[in-house]
Amino acid sequence: MGVSRAAIVGFGDVAIIHHEAITAIDGVDLVGVVDTDADRRELAATLLGVPAFATVDELVDAASPDVVHVTTPHHQHITPTLAALERGVHVLQEKPLAASIEDGQRLVDWADGWTPGRPQVGICFQNRYNVSSQELRRLLDSGELGAVHGAYASVVWTRTADYYKAKPWRGSRAESGGGLLINQAIHTLDLVQWFMGDVVDIAGHVATHKFGDVIEVEDTAEMLLTHDSGLKTSFYATLTAPQHRPVEFELDCENAYVTLRNGLSVHWKDGRVTTTAERKAPSGGRSYWGVSHELLIRDFYASVDDPEPFWIGPAEAMKSLQILKRTYEVSGF
Predict the structure, then answer these.
(1) Is the CB of residue 62 less than 8 Å from the CB of residue 7?
(2) Which of 69, 191, 222, 81 is nearest to 126 (CA)?
(3) CA–CA dist 167, 149 (Å, integer)
(4) What b/e string do you get for 44-65 counting C-beta neighbours within 10 Å, with b at 16 or more?
C-alpha cells in the first residue's frame, strides 16, 4: 500500500467511524481535518490532535494527504470530493452519492473514463462487506439457490424529534436530499439492487406520519421495485417504530428461502438449514451502522494503486440515489 497520510473532511457523527479505521490501519496516520464551522474545527483539532483547516485546498497545501475521507452532510459531499480529486488526492466519500441527481452526476462525470494513475474515489456502502451480504452474493453467483422468484426488504427503525432538531439539515429537502430513504434506508436499497439487479420501474409512496411538525422530508416509505430481470422486490421502511428492528432482506428461490436478519439463514427445500453469523465489533459509532466500515476502508486503501477503479464508485452509488429520487417523483413528494 503506497498510502500513509489521511485526512477527514467534515467533523460530524460518522467521522468517528472513519477515524477509528484510520487509527486501526498500520502505516496510516491522520494528518489533518477540515470543517467549515470554526467551532467544530477547534474541537476536531483538540480531540484528534491534528491541524484543522477551513478548506480542502488549505489542507492539501499544508498537510499533503494521500487520502481524504469526506464525511460532510449530504449537500456538501461533491464539492470537497471534487476539490480533493482535482488536486490528485484519493477520496473515500460517505453515502449518499449526493443530495441531488444533478450534483451526483458531477462526480459520475469526473469518474467516467477513469484510467490508471488518476485518483481513486469510493463511496461508503459498507454493508456489502457484511459477512451475510458476502455469503448471499456468493450463493447467488454460484447458482446453488436456483431461480430467484422475488424478494422482500424492510428497515423499521425509530427516531425522535430531537434527532432532527439537533442537526436541522437532516430534515431539509435541500440539504439532506430526502429523509428516511436517503439517510437510513439507502444502504438496504443498495443491497437490494446489488443482489437483485438494476431497478427499471418503481411503484411506491412516501409520507411523513410522525414528524411532520419538525421535518419537510419523509419518515415512511413503501415501494414495489421491478428489476431488469422482471423480478420484483417489496420494500418497506419507517422511522416511526418504538424501537429499532433488525434490517431484513428475504429472498424466495427455487431451492431455498433466504433470510438476511442479523446474519444469514438459508432454509433449503431438502430440509437443511444453514446459517452464517454476522461479525460484531466494538465502536464509538451507532450500532445500526454495522461493523464493516473498517473492512471497506481497508479495502479502499489496499486498492488505491490498482489498475481498475474502486468497485463501489460514483456510477454504482448513483443507482440507489436514482431509486429513491424516482420514488419521490412517483409519489408526488
Answers:
(1) no
(2) 191
(3) 41
(4) bbeebebbbbeebeebbeebeb
- DSSP category for residue 14: T
Distance in angstroms (rounded) separating the CA atoms of residues 181 and 167: 17
- Residue 265: alpha-carbon gap to chain centroid: 24
Cα 67 to Cα 226: distance, rounded to the nearest angstrom: 37
**Dihedrals phi, psi of 215, to nearest 5 degrees:** -125, 160
Cα–Cα distance between 197 and 200 in angstroms, integer?
A: 9
Amino acid identity of 9? V
Residues 94-105: tens digit of each pLDDT:
999 999 999 999
What number of other Cβ atoms are within 10 A of residue 307's Cβ? 7
Give pLDDT, residue 221.
Answer: 98
Q: Measuring CA to CA, which residue among 312, 333, 283, 18 is closest to residue 181? A: 333
C-alpha–C-alpha distance, residues 317 and 298, integer Å: 19
Q: Would you mind telling me the total number of residues written for the chain in this entry?
A: 333
The cell 439487479 sits on which residue? 197
Contact status, residue 202 vs residue 330, Cβ threshold 8 Å: yes
> Which distant-in-sequence residues (6+ apart) come within 8 Å of 34 by Cβ?
7, 8, 9, 10, 41, 52, 53, 54, 55, 56, 58, 59, 80
The dihedrals phi and psi of 52, each to the nearest 5 degrees, come to -120, 145
Closest CA relative to residue 92, chosen from 187, 7, 183: 7
**CB distance 187 to 311 below 8 Å:** no
| 181/303 Cα distance (integer angstroms) | 29
Backbone torsions φ then ψ of 232, nearest 5 degrees: -125, 150
Measure the CA–CA gap between 212 and 77, rounded to whole angstroms.
26
Looking at this protein, which amino acid is placed at residue 83?
Answer: A
| CA–CA gap between residue 224 and residue 30 (Å, rounded) | 44
Render pLDDT for 280-319 as a digit per residue (tens, 0 to 9).
Answer: 765 554 444 457 999 999 999 999 999 999 999 999 999 9
